[in-house]
Amino acid sequence: ASDTQTATGTETADAGGDNLEKSKAIDWQSAKDNAGNPLFIDTFVPDTPEKPADPDSLPETDELHWFNFEYPYAEIQKLEQPASPADGCIGKKLILLKNGDHPYHTAYIEATKQAAEIFGMEVEVMSANWDVNIQTQQVDQAINEAPDLIIYNPVDQETSVTHLRKMYDAGIPVIGSNVMPSNEGFQYLLSFCGPADWDQSKLLAQYMAEKAGYKGNYCVITHNPGGSAYYARAYGVITELAKIAPDMVCLDIQSPGTDSAENVKQVVSDWITKYGDDLDVIFTSETTVQATGSIEACEAAGRSDILIGGIDNSETALNYIKEGKLTCATNQPPMQDGALPVLLAAKWFNGETIDDYVFMEPAVINADNVEDFLPAQW
Amino acid sequence: MDKDRKKWMAFCSANRVYLIFAAVFVLMSLFAPRFFNTYNIGTLLGTAMLNGIVVIGFTIVLICGHLDLSTVAIINVAGNLAIYMVQKTGSFGAGILAAVVAGIVIGIVNGLLVTRAKINSFIATLGMSTLLQGLVSYSNNAATRSITDFTMTDFLDKKLIPIVPNRALIAIIIVLLVHFFMSRTTMGKNFYLVGGNVESAWYAGIRPEHYLIGAFSLNGAFAALGGALYACYLASAMADIGAMGVSPLNMLIAASVLGGASLAGGRGSILHSFFGVLTLTALYNGLTCFKLGYEMQIFVNGIVLMIVVLMEAVSLYRKNKLAGSKSDLFKQAQN
Amino acid sequence: MKKANILEFVSRFGTYMIVIILVGLGCVISDKFLSTTNLINILDAVSYLGILASGMALVTYCGQSVDLSTPSTIAVASFVSILTLRFGMIPMILCTLLSGALIGLFNGLIVGKFRINTVVWTLAVSFVFAGLIRVIFGSANIYVTTGNTRAFEQISRYRISGRIPLGVVVMVALMIGLHIFVSRSRIGRQLKLVGCSELVARYSGINVLRIITLSFVGSGMAAAITGLFIASLSKSACYNYGTGYEFRAITAVVLSGMVLDGGRGSIAGVLGGVLAIGLLNNIMTLLGLNSFLQDVVTGIVFIVIVWFTNYTKTKLEALNG
Amino acid sequence: MQHIVKRFSSFLAVNDISIQVRPGEVHAICGENGAGKSTLMKVLAGEYPDYEGRISIHGTEVKLDSPTTARRCGIAIIHQELGLAGPISVAENIFAGNLPRKKGILLDRRKLYEDAKKYLGMVGLSYVRPETLVSALSQHEAQLVEIAKALSNDPKILIMDEPTSALSREEGKRLFSIIEDLKKRGLAILYISHFLSEVFEVSDYITTMRDGRHVATEAKTETTPEKVIYHMVGKDIKDFYAERKTTVGSTVLEAKSLTRYGFFQNISFDVHEGEILGICGLSGAGRTELARALVGIDQWDEGELFYEGESIRNHSYTESIRRNIAYLAEDRKLQGLMLNLPIGENITSAKAICQSRSFWCQEEQEKNAVDGLMEELQVNPRNVKKIVGQLSGGNQQKVLLAKWLLTDPKLLILDEPTRGVDVGAKSMIHEAIKRHVDKGNAAIIISSDLMEVGGLSDRVLLLYHGRQRGIIEKDKDNCSEVSLLMLANGDGKAYEEG
Ligand SMILES: Nc1ncnc2c1ncn2[C@@H]1O[C@H](COP(=O)(O)OP(=O)(O)OP(=O)(O)O)[C@@H](O)[C@H]1O
Ligand SMILES: Nc1ncnc2c1ncn2[C@@H]1O[C@H](COP(=O)(O)OP(=O)(O)OP(=O)(O)O)[C@@H](O)[C@H]1O
Ligand SMILES: [Mg+2]
Ligand SMILES: [Mg+2]
């Protein structure tokens, strides 16, 4: 595999500095997504707090309990990464190891392809359909294809370590995207970019707390158990509320899944029965199935007083916000998410230095600014 | 002429899975970019490890005329238990052993539910699956358990013999051993008899309940072994590997049916089921080489499965239609 | 004699006894349990499942074990409903039903004609349709854009006299209709005979192929109705909208006292099975049980109930014999 | 065996039976359906460990608590119902539970196939390869494999429970020669059959049972079939096939050179109102296939068929039933009855479903008719709620007949209507058939029991290897059992070559 790589390396070097010039001259700043918003958006590098001695000893409502989940990149000694060829991004080959299929990821892949085209790169997509075993095979297949760089979306945070280690050993630079790998995994990564899941869920908590007047009780619907979004989107809200609105009590947390609005509706109906007027706010971890189920349950019970807020920006969510049924959603744009790793890759091929990890600035979408986010990306 | 054709047909149906595998393999080698090289073939074989080991027990249960829907849950229990034990003791041996023991215990419970409580295996194991999956998720709040010790990963990725990674080698050795056991020992043959006709097995002095419990515990053992080895290989175990996407269960059923096992019992072969797994893995691998998405893979998987069962059923249908016919009366009719 | 009567009662009304026990339990646990809203909620929560399960029950009753193609049928139906809405509500409903009926027809004709194992065949069909949807539409959400979107949304939201959801009405009406149909009509009787023994049914002059096909068409149409409701609820269609429904429906059918060999049980029992699931989930959520523990409890309750009905059945047969 | 008792819950299936069997002797057990013959044999085979009484072999008392113990004691059984595993090879079936081993656990495949060949040869199946799957065999071949299986255990005592019910005369003859052979080798054989002719042919002693009780044990030389029948049913049966006055009406069914490729060829006959047509031939002659084609289960290829003067071409079976044709299939357990449904539902099933045109079921209206039929056929127990699977074979067959009689068929086609049925039930069934025909209906009867075909029918159609060998008129020709047998077997070689 390494033979092939040096071969392609020398070839592009033969093309001379010409390719680098052309690559650097590419105008990517003006690229737009389907809504006319910039395809490549501003990113930020978050501050990391001091790591507590033993996070597990802290209560679950303390954000530092989740230190390893929220800041897996902290205190990691990066292994030595391949040196940039610094010969321009045009003509480079990328492989996108996708974690699975989902409307969000359809938009993501579209943007990755669009971005690669802008930079004159070739991108091949392999989707694991949420199956680690298939992703393991695809990691090997990707290595076998000897691309210039791999964009990697892990199926699972922890299992990603073995995959990343393999790709690292094969000498292929990897940019993580969309889902953060665990602590161990980060050492193998050239860079990571993606949505700031914890931050957006905290932002959601802040906005909802303000709307609720920093009082009242809430329930949380989690994402699929086990995934990184499961922790970030539930405990981001819970820890933040414990900090800024200590009067707000978490009544219950349930995981009815992300496949069936009917299941979600059932859980929310049961909550309304059980808690009655005590229930003031519902947080959902997703805005298609879960928002629909929650809204329908509340409407059926005639409880228009309950505030519902969810994470991400599906068309369903934006419509609900317009109709006033959903208090707010957060902006996690899949297209920008998908374009970002390509930008990082291009920069790296062009010899520019890139950050170890960057995140997309989250934003709250509410009735006042919803028009800015339309048409929806998925 | 006719006899030759009949012989040829019989040969084809007996070796169906090898022919399908060969067809997929040759087509992919010819047309799929980067499919046919030692590295990718090693990848393909390695990927077959998990399902290849698990399909052993799954097939034994099918041979006995039952179905174990809790197999995937057992894989998850085993993976989590193995990683937990490695975390606690630092020894992979202890982890794998504990997982296999747990798998056997679960298998015995399944077997007892089927033989003693006389619950249809489809239903008993469906309930068992819900129960076990709940337990696994509860035990670690659905988080993936992981370790940072990669000795097992490296060992399983090494190649003692060229092309074949150790994880594939282990699977192949186990498959061959169990295949030998099932096809060449009297005890193995008895499983077929129990699946073929429970009553006649009982008349023959075989205790069908013992064999059924045995089959379910073997399924527990191999599902657990596969799950544990796979978890050790990935240095982590998810709470539910089948939570999203297509459950490995579907893959197992498809592979063993391709291999000639029937849900009615009495038929099936460990080696054929393993080749069923290899065929599907090669199919997925090759379609990925073609840059076709996962949707195409399950579509093709479904079509292959459909064609195979349909062909089998149609030939049986034809055969039944002609059963008892007298060939000389045909000759007369044609004249 | 006395014992036989009790056992007979148990084996016939077993599911409803569970329902009564669960209702009792619910009353103890929460004073809000018996409120009309909660009861309607429980019904509402299981209405789609109930519609689906009553279709699946036809297949089981007819001795064809289970129809695993339902998740794909649901997904296909949700796409069809959204794509045909532009032609008006009635054509949309007809097309959706037709899509389910066609998949059922395909399954039924093949399974009935060539005696393929249902589990394997419907699994293969499920793969093919799931793949097909994803090849055509990708894994994107398709939203309702054209046509009478308001009416479409109302399918899953409309409440009769403001209280009873349409889904519940459809489920109950479907079950009553199917129950009468299955237990009283000649075709229902044929379903039962085919379920008891296909060969005997054939030699009794029943067109077995037609009956098996009918059961699958019923299952497909029930799945299509479920798909329509789900699409209306989500106002969109997506390839994964049917995920997991097949095993939930099987659970309900099994709890109803039907056996996978066919020929036993009733559609009224399926209502009991569905209610038992709804009540159990409701009670566990009211108890505040964690989602994972809910799975554990569901698994145990399921096994125990199946064992118990089995046990009474064998005891009963021993007494009669 | 002494004072053997076996209960099913409170029901006494075998009530205090004592029998002695000596080596080199064939001991036949006779009795009506449900007399408890099979149950007694199953006790001997170790299948009911909860029996009472004592069993001694060669003077030593044994406790037969499992099939394995019984086998170890040298007892082998050929079951009434086939007990082979379909998807498994013939050889493995023969040695099931006793596969030859080498090195402790390994299967000795060479020995397995060689030994299997030996035993297959013994029962005249040397042309069957031991690797063949049992599911690929025909029914009579399977029955012979079953016998080979019993022989493979090298038994001292061999139990044969109706071994000939699925065999043709010829194969039966071969079986008797095997039995002779075994007798010479000193085996003790227990033989159960409803064919008294067979019983008198092979056995040395005859024991009769009634309602689970022992009635008599006599040496063959000291008794007659009439006496045995008297013991079995407790009364004399005279005029078994009494002369019937036939008033022939118009033609009901007429076949003109009917042909189904590969199965039968050029069959022509007609049946009239008030007439019974017998179809006679060896097993495998294509009688069942012909009947299936007549009723429309299978399609035929050439020729014409007229029903009540109207030509019917490729009609469906359902259509036939609508037209008032009934077909009583050969295998009552697989094709005839819903074993887990009650008697009532079984009887009404054909009429309610295929003859009624209304959307709803109207079973209630049939209630009286069902009761009448059960009374007429003396179905025991006379309880419509009883599950059919729990009845004895004869009563099951009565229920099956009742099911078709309820549809009041114009043409009744009966395929083996009395297979495995005792004499009493048999005559009851025959009477019912005659009564039905006398009402101006027609019947076609297929039976391996030549006495039955000869005795019942007005004319007999002879089939040999799918071809018609002629029709024998009862009044003109001699229709006795012997002459039928001669004709059926006759110089058929000429046809085969032609
Ligand atoms: N399913 C089957 N598989 C293989 N052979 C069969 C099957 N069914 C019937 N046969 C064979 O086909 C031939 C014709 O059978 P058929 O049943 O027509 O005979 P028949 O004349 O009705 O005699 P009988 O009823 O006494 O068996 C026989 O040799 C029979 O053994
Ligand atoms: N497992 C069982 N449970 C309950 N009753 C049974 C069982 N087996 C047999 N019987 C009953 O015991 C009685 C004797 O049955 P058995 O089979 O011994 O009769 P048989 O003499 O062999 O009759 P056939 O000639 O019809 O074979 C019958 O009334 C039958 O219904
Ligand atoms: Mg008997
Ligand atoms: Mg026949």
Explain what this protein looks like in three dimensions.
The complex is a heterotetramer of chains A (378), B (335), C (321) and D (498). Chain A is of the alpha/beta class and 378 residues long. Chain A has 13 helices and 13 strands. In chain A, the strands form 3 sheets. Chain A has a 7-stranded mixed β-sheet with strand order 1-12-6-5-4-2-3, sandwiched between helices. A 4-stranded parallel β-sheet of chain A has the order 8-7-9-10, with helices on both faces. Chain A is globular and about 70 Å long. The model of chain A is unreliable at 1-14 (pLDDT under 50). Chain B is mostly helical. Chain B has one domain (17-334): ABC transporter involved in vitamin B12 uptake, BtuC (Orthogonal Bundle). Chain B has 15 helices and 2 strands. Chain B has a two-stranded antiparallel sheet. In chain B, helix 4 runs antiparallel to helix 5 (92-115) and helix 5 (92-115) packs antiparallel against helix 6 (121-139). In chain B, 61% of the residues are buried. Chain C has one domain (2-320): ABC transporter involved in vitamin B12 uptake, BtuC, CATH 1.10.3470. In chain C, 78% of the residues lie in helices and 2% in strands. Chain C has 13 helices and 4 strands. Chain C has helices spanning 2-29, 36-61, 70-84, 89-114, 118-137, 149-157, 166-184, 186-196, 198-203, 208-234, 245-255, 267-287, 291-320; strands spanning 142-143, 159-160, 164-165, 236-237. In chain C, the strands form 2 sheets. A two-stranded antiparallel ribbon of chain C has the order 1-4. A two-stranded antiparallel sheet of chain C has the order 2-3. Chain D has 498 residues and is an alpha/beta fold. Chain D is 35% helix and 24% strand. In chain D, a hairpin with a 2-residue loop joins strand 11 and strand 12. In chain D, helix 13 packs across helix 14 (393-405), helix 14 packs parallel to helix 15 (423-438) and helix 16 crosses helix 17. Chains B and C meet through helix 6, helix 12 and helix 14 of B and helix 4, helix 5, helix 11 and helix 13 of C. Bound molecules: adenosine-5'-triphosphate (2 copies) and magnesium ion (2 copies). Residues 37-38, 80, 161 of chain D line the site of one magnesium ion.
